[in-house]
Amino acid sequence: MPTSIGPTSTREPGKSASGLETGQLGRLSLASLAIASYTPAVGMALAPVLFFSAGGVNAWPAAFLAMIAVIGVGLAVVAFARRYVGTGSLYSYVGEVFGAWSRVLMAATLLLGFVLQLAGTTAIVGIFTGSFLSARGMGSALDLGPQIVIYAIAILVSATVAYRGLDTSVRVAVLLTVVSLPLVLLITFASVGSTGLQLDSQLDLGSMSMSSTFLGLAGGIAFLVSFESCTALAAETKDPRRNVPIAVMSIPVLLGGLYLLATFLQTPGLAAASDALAAGASPTAALAEQSGLGSGVATATDVVLALAVFASLIGFVNYGSRFFLTLAQDGLLPRRITSIHPRHHSPSAAIVLLAVTGFAVLAAAFLLAGDLLTAYNSIAVSIVYAWVLPYLMITVGAVVLLVRERALAPLTILGAAVGFAGMGWLYVNGIVNPPAPPIDAMSWVVLVGIVVLVVLLGVAYQRRVRSDG
Questions:
Q1: How far is it, in rounded angstroms, from Cα 239 to Cα 85?
Q2: What is the DSSP track for 177-199?
Q3: 12 Cβ contact list (under 8 Å, min separation 6)
Q4: pLDDT at residue 21 above 80?
Q5: What CATH number does domain 27-467 carry, 3.30.930.10, 3.40.50.150, 3.10.450.50, 1.20.1740.10?
Q6: pTM here?
């Protein structure tokens, strides 16, 4: 199995070794797509309620720990991004330190992770669209049938945009992000004006439960994990060893800080709107009603955020498809997945595979869970668990890399240690202090899924080796 995918080994001028076009993205375009992929408006709308649902009025410490842990992991990722260029995200890095065995393990975890990420993001479209349609009198909008239609349309649209290439993806994703952010900011500050910040209760750490804080961390950190996915675009980026690290760190620093602030500002309003949340209203709709902005703003918010989530879908279809492409080129997935569109320079076959598997996983999760919110919460926690092992491997790998090179980088080593401890304990805490069923089973479901994928990918690779002589 290859140990690196480098930008210098090209098949023809302007093409990387993967067949993708080089130099398409500048620093601003890459960072913009990275940030837009996390749809800040949607993160501000949903991350606080996930932190709040576990920690109550002491929700902000979970948001703070999430930011710190992901920054630590980011410093470890940057250590590799400054040295290596690839299309397989962390998969392209880990083999440089641990060898071929680590790539199969990383491939299995990230394969599961990207499919879950697409499924979870599509579920968010279903939440906001269903909330909007329910408010307009369609009481069945959150049922399986209508939701399946919403999922199919959402994935088809985002896959089509990604299929048309990176330029189109960047333009559409950034536009959706810019349009959606002002309304969520309005609702957030209106909520503060209605309830105040209630500093006495929010800053009373004596009533904080560490187990609840880590449960909130497991749910809310889903809006930050996989932040390094933009490294999959390194081979298509200008000056990737300089620009990719900037794009990587923009997520935990900028968005991590934004979600922390949003959690602190929204917590009193979420507490006041608990009944509306329990009745199935989306968090922003509940906050808009509670703060006196009216049902019109609440309904408009659901529409705007449903559209904004498409920016995230577009981003992760681009990232995940390039990861699938890399696995196919290395013999872990079928050869047909290596197909590149001759005009749009997009991994067309990989996009189709990711879209189909993401849709299938989300539909199955809904069927098993019985309702949309339970399915979404289960997938959100599973996304985090799927990225725990990759982050543990990359943080250890960064330290090994620096020791081999005898490079003095105390900040990176400290960040790697913090990231390793935070992500490791997050998984352990899910077992020691499990959430309510069925979410409590997700730590084991993810583990079993990884084991199964390791076996399947290992067998596929051995067959490719034999067929290639």
A1: 10
A2: HHHHHHHHHHHHHHHHHHH---H
A3: none
A4: no
A5: 1.20.1740.10
A6: 0.86
